[in-house]
């Protein structure tokens, strides 16, 4: 998966998690258009980046344990040196 595609996928995942509207793991994966094992791998990556993602069995949805903001940023710093 290309980097920009993965970022867009993470944004979609974040939006659904923020709104507690993921559904069950199977439904979440289906809504994302990926297989369940891939969805679990992506959740693991987000958790490794610090996202406090939990699953609520009664609501059948993933959620953030604490208030969370997904920020992805690329920056280039150009030095004034020509050499």
Map the helices and strands.
Elements: H1 3-18, H2 25-32, H3 36-48, E1 53-56, E2 61-64
Antiparallel strand pairs: 1-2
Backbone CA Rg: 16 Å
Helix content: 40-55%
Major sheet strand order: 1-2
Question: Which oligomeric state applies?
Answer: single chain
Poorly predicted segments: none
Say what the CATH topology is: Arc Repressor Mutant, subunit A
Count, helices: 3
Q: Summarize model confidence as the mean pLDDT.
A: 93
Number of domains: 1
Second rung of CATH, namely the architecture: Orthogonal Bundle
Distance between the termini: 36 Å
Give a description of the structure:
This protein is mainly alpha-helical and 83 residues long. The protein has one domain (3-64): Arc Repressor Mutant, subunit A. Helices cover 45% and strands 10% of the residues. It contains three helices and two strands; from the N terminus they run H-H-H-E-E. It has helices at residues 3-18, 25-32, 36-48; strands at residues 53-56, 61-64. The chain has a two-stranded antiparallel sheet. Strand 1 and strand 2 (61-64) form a beta hairpin. Helix 2 packs across helix 3 (36-48). The longest helix has 16 residues, at 3-18. The protein is elongated and about 60 Å long. It starts with a helix and ends in a 19-residue tail after the last strand. The relative contact order is 0.17.
